[in-house]
């Protein structure tokens, strides 16, 4: 039921009551009552997964994963998945549009307070107010409106990839487009990915260093800081060079950048201390490892988690 038909059905008996009251008042030379029929309406608003600096959407390119996109924009991958109704296999496809803002249903935002409307009419007509019936009626109808809205909004939206699949497209989605769900385990202890000195430490701010830069010799082994699953390997993120992202559990991710060679595949389970890459200078002006830890999508200072040397 749309808002107009709902309003018409609501006002029909009230209009009859007001007309009757007006005729009665005219017959007795008494001014007809003035009834405030205004109702509260909240305009629709936008829900966002993070701050207002985010783009409206991201168009998935070949090699992207949900994790690499969330990493690029500094958002929680779970919120991004929920916002775009992506299953917990987190599979996405080239050409798919991932939204960062979701327009709420107008039906959910509009609050027609029927109880206030009825109460105003009863008071103007000097009729006894039966609060329980007014409340029950209002709750029943408002719940129907919400249920109707939720029933529509919960229906999955067909993605670009699904449209292509239904049209029997021969284009294959790259392996890097999806990652099986992995809850991981609690991290008992973090490990240094390389043994070296800190070149550049962590700093807050929009243009700050999101992790730490650690010196190292070209070809030196880069090791996983904790057990986890490789959810991205590639060089699509500007400024990171050859990058590995490891998901440790639902809260923590870690990243290893500027590698010269990568030794792991996406979806591979790695152990703490396992060699995953070699130090290099891809996307950098010198051989080093850029190492990041993110907690629920937000960069945190790795030094606070790594053991003291």
From TrEMBL:
Gene3D superfamilies reported for this sequence: Glucose Permease (Domain IIA), LysM domain
Q: Which UniProt keywords apply?
A: Signal
Tell me the superkingdom of the source: Bacteria
Per the UniProt record, the source organism is Pleionea litopenaei
Whether Hydrolase counts among this entry's keywords is no
Which family is this protein grouped under? Answer: Belongs to the E.coli NlpD/Haemophilus LppB family.
- The transmembrane residues are none
Please list the residue ranges annotated as the LysM domain.
Answer: 56-100
Q: Which Pfam families match?
A: LysM, Peptidase_M23
Q: Which SMART domains match?
A: LysM (SM00257)
Signal peptide residue numbers? 1-25
Bias (Polar residues) ranges? 169-180
Q: Which GO terms describe its molecular function?
A: metalloendopeptidase activity
Write out the ranges of the annotated region (Disordered): 133-180
Organism classification: Bacteria, Pseudomonadati, Pseudomonadota, Gammaproteobacteria, Oceanospirillales
Q: Would you tell me the protein name for this molecule?
A: Peptidoglycan DD-metalloendopeptidase family protein
Which PROSITE patterns would you find in this protein's record? LYSM, PROKAR_LIPOPROTEIN
An annotated GO cellular component of this protein is: cell outer membrane
């Amino acid at each position: 039921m749309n808002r107009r038909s709902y309003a018409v059905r609501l006002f029909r008996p009230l209009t009859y009551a007001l007309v009757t009251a007006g005729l009665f008042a005219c017959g007795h030379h008494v001014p007809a009552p003035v009834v405030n029929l205004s109702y509260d309406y909240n305009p629709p608003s936008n829900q966002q997964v993070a701050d207002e600096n985010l783009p409206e959407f991201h168009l998935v390119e070949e090699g992207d994963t949900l994790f690499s996109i969330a990493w690029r924009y500094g958002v929680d991958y779970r919120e991004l998945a929920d916002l775009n109704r992506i299953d917990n296999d987190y599979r996405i496809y080239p050409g798919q549009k991932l939204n960062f803002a979701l327009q709420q249903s107008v039906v959910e935002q509009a609050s027609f307070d029927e109880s206030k409307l009825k109460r105003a009419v009863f008071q103007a007509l000097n009729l006894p107010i039966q609060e329980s019936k007014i409340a029950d009626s209002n709750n029943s109808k408002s719940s129907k409106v919400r249920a109707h809205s939720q029933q529509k909004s919960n229906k999955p939206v067909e993605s670009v990839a699904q449209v292509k699949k239904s049209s029997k497209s021969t284009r294959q989605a790259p392996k890097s487009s999806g990652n099986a769900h992995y809850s991981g385990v609690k991290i008992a202890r973090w490990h240094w990915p390389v043994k070296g000195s800190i070149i550049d430490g962590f700093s807050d701010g929009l243009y700050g260093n999101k992790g730490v830069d650690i010196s190292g010799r070209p070809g030196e082994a880069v090791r996983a800081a904790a057990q986890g699953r490789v959810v991205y390997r590639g060089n699509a993120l500007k400024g990171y060079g050859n990058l590995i992202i490891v998901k440790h559990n639902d809260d923590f991710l870690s990243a290893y950048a500027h590698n010269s060679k990568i030794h792991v595949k996406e979806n591979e389970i790695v152990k703490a201390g396992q060699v995953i890459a070699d130090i290099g200078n891809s996307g950098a002006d010198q051989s080093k490892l850029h190492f990041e830890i993110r907690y629920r999508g937000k960069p945190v200072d790795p030094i606070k988690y790594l053991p003291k040397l």
